[in-house]
Structure formats: structure tokens, C-alpha cells
């Protein structure tokens, strides 16, 4: 039976220059591989060791990139290893099969959002009204599913995100602060729901997961085993769960450790495997 490995990308497997956390002496810094170019500039990296491990993982498991990125943002990433058959974009809003959106899945997501939470237009309007142009650099609507702001963190008022989270909670939405981005995402829009569907399609009897942000919590809780790095929203809040290992590594070396843990778990004997938890 196949093993399904669902991993967040940004600040979990791949890292921008600002997120690398190369705190070691220069001579001991790991060799890096660029895996994303945007507007002719290198944007995201992983270590060369992690790249080889990910290639090995793709040969031995069903590897599923699982991201809040839009499809367009995801498709500019060039991960090492065999092209994944499945990918999850827009926090579960789009399930890609061989790079193409599964229309039935997307239609089902839209129906759930219409039934279970406030409309995107209401949330976006509140974001625009509540945010201060002094610290907002960009505002975006992603895939007509959720909204986010790009902000100057040093100018962001300390309690603003908490106040937004309370407002959003009452409308069936969740708020996540990741680096310079503040996401407002409908609660029914989850990575775990899409991973459940891929597990069903593939017949996977073991699901592994990794992520660093609040938007990854449902994914980690749904998997048989999970890992989170020593940085990010979950680490900063002290978030923990019984089947989730909190790694000490931060930055790009955490990404390497996560792929190593995935590969070790895939190669372990099959005893103790179970179905994806509901």
C-alpha cells in the first residue's frame, strides 16, 4: 500500500533568502539549490542534500505538495524529483491532478464555502477598512477563495491580528500571520480535506505531513505522523499534538530535516500504519 506524504512548501520545504536562517559560520553553510525563479530573480531554495532526499522520497511515496499558494504561484516552483501526480493549492481549494484542476473537487469546495461561512466580499471589505495604508504594502484576493495582506511587520500594531482573528472567527473564517503576510481564510477551506480525498484515491495506508503555520494545523492533526520546524507560527505559539514532532532546526536546515524524517518513516516496517484520521 502506498505512503502519502503531504507537505507545506514555504518555510517548511522551501525558503526565501530572508527565511534561510543561515546562522552558522559562512564556511559551514550548506550548499543551496534554487527551486523557484520569479521575474527573472531567484526566490526560493532548499539545500542540495534536501533536494536529493526529496528525489528519493518521490521515488518511494506519493509526494503531494500542499500549499496556500495560488496555482500560478505554485507552478513557478521547480521541485527536484519526479513530477507529483497530485498537488493541493489555495489551501485545499484546488486539487491538481497531473497539473490540472479537478473541477468536481473545486465545485464541492465552493458549495461548502457558500453554506458554512461569510462571503469573501464581506471579509475583504473589512480588511480594507481596518488595515492602515501606512503598513500595508499589497492586498490580494487569491483564486476568489480567500484574501491576504502583505505588510511591514515592524509597523504592524501588536494587537491588530488578534482583533482581526476574533472578528473573523465569528464569521467562520480564520486568520494566519506568516512572515509578512496576513491571511484570512474560510474555515471549511482546509488542506486536510483535500489530503483525505487523495488518500482515498490512492489507497494510502499511511499519511505523513509537515507544516509551520496555523493553516497547517488541521493537516498535521489529520495525518498519522507529522513534523513542524522550530520556526513559524506553530512554533512561536508552542502548538503541540501527540503525533506531531516539534523539530529544533530552524530555517532551511529544518526543511532538510523534515525530508529526512519523511524518508525514514516511509522506509520503516509497515506495522502500526493506520488510515488518515478524521
From TrEMBL:
<dbReference type="InterPro" id="IPR024197">
    <property type="entry name" value="TPP-like"/>
</dbReference>
<dbReference type="GO" id="GO:0016787">
    <property type="term" value="F:hydrolase activity"/>
</dbReference>
<protein>
    <submittedName>
        <fullName>HAD superfamily hydrolase</fullName>
    </submittedName>
</protein>
<keyword id="KW-0378">Hydrolase</keyword>
<dbReference type="InterPro" id="IPR023214">
    <property type="entry name" value="HAD_sf"/>
</dbReference>
<dbReference type="InterPro" id="IPR036412">
    <property type="entry name" value="HAD-like_sf"/>
</dbReference>
Amino acid at each position: 500500500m502506498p505512503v502519502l506524504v503531504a507537505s507545506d512548501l514555504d518555510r517548511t520545504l522551501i525558503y526565501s533568502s530572508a527565511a534561510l536562517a543561515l546562522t552558522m559560520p559562512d564556511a559551514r553553510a550548506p550548499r543551496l539549490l534554487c527551486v523557484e525563479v520569479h521575474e527573472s530573480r531567484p526566490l526560493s531554495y532548499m539545500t542540495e542534500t534536501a533536494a536529493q532526499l526529496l528525489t528519493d522520497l518521490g521515488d518511494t511515496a506519493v509526494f503531494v505538495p500542499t500549499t496556500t499558494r495560488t496555482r500560478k504561484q505554485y507552478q513557478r516552483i521547480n521541485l527536484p524529483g519526479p513530477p507529483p501526480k497530485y498537488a493541493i493549492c489555495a489551501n485545499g481549494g484546488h486539487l491538481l491532478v497531473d497539473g490540472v484542476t479537478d473541477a468536481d473537487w473545486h465545485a464541492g469546495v465552493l458549495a461548502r464555502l457558500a453554506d458554512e461561512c461569510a462571503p469573501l466580499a464581506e471579509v475583504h471589505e473589512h480588511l480594507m477598512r481596518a488595515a492602515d495604508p501606512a503598513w500595508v504594502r499589497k492586498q490580494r484576493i487569491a483564486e476568489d477563495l480567500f484574501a491576504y495582506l502583505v505588510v511591514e511587520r515592524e509597523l504592524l500594531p501588536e494587537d491588530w491580528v488578534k482583533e482581526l482573528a476574533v472578528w473573523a472567527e465569528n464569521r467562520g473564517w480564520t486568520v494566519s500571520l506568516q512572515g509578512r503576510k496576513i491571511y484570512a481564510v474560510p474555515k471549511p477551506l482546509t488542506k486536510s480535506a483535500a489530503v483525505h480525498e487523495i488518500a482515498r484515491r490512492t489507497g494510502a495506508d499511511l499519511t505523513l505531513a509537515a507544516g509551520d503555520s496555523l493553516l497547517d494545523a488541521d493537516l498535521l492533526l489529520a495525518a498519522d505522523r507529522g513534523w513542524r520546524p522550530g520556526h513559524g507560527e506553530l512554533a512561536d505559539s508552542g502548538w503541540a499534538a501527540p503525533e506531531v514532532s516539534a523539530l529544533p532546526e530552524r530555517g532551511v536546515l529544518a526543511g532538510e530535516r523534515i525530508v529526512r524524517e519523511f524518508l525514514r518513516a516511509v522506509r520503516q516496517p509497515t506495522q502500526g500504519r493506520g488510515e488518515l484520521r478524521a
